[in-house]
Amino acid sequence: MASSYDEVLLDVVARVQAAGSIGKSDIGALLVWKRLRADTPWARRLMSLPDLEVRATTARAVAAVCDERVSTPAAASQGRRLLSSLPGFTKGDALASALLVAAAPHRMAVYDTRAHRGLEFLGGTLSSSPGRYGRYMQLIDDLLTLAHQHDHTWIARDVDLALYWLGRSH
Q: N or C: the chain end with fewer CB closer than 10 Å?
């Protein structure tokens, strides 16, 4: 995760580790990092919430994805579910996954349509039904296991970047 593109992500990671939660300014930074639109009704609703309420919700998600006693896919599912009460997080996994990566960069991966296409190119199937992020993280875990069997010391972020580039080219 050392590329200049990830500098914003790394800044947010540091703040999340210090605070144990993700605030509205961090969500805004991740929104720009993911190159998503902020001129939407959900963004207005999110910004209308008190930051303390947003942080209380995200603190539970941060704790869930950082809980090493739980498998990564289960932690991902729980973290994603906890974020779903916030405006903008009821559907779609791109921004939610960015928050979860900021919370646990050593175990979570970013989801987007290009990474999804990369998985499909490799023969993986991932439906859009509820719980997709947990299933995505199971596939990421499977790929990490395969990488480790071949002496690669990758983290989930390395895999999502590889899938992104693979999906981008197909």
A: C
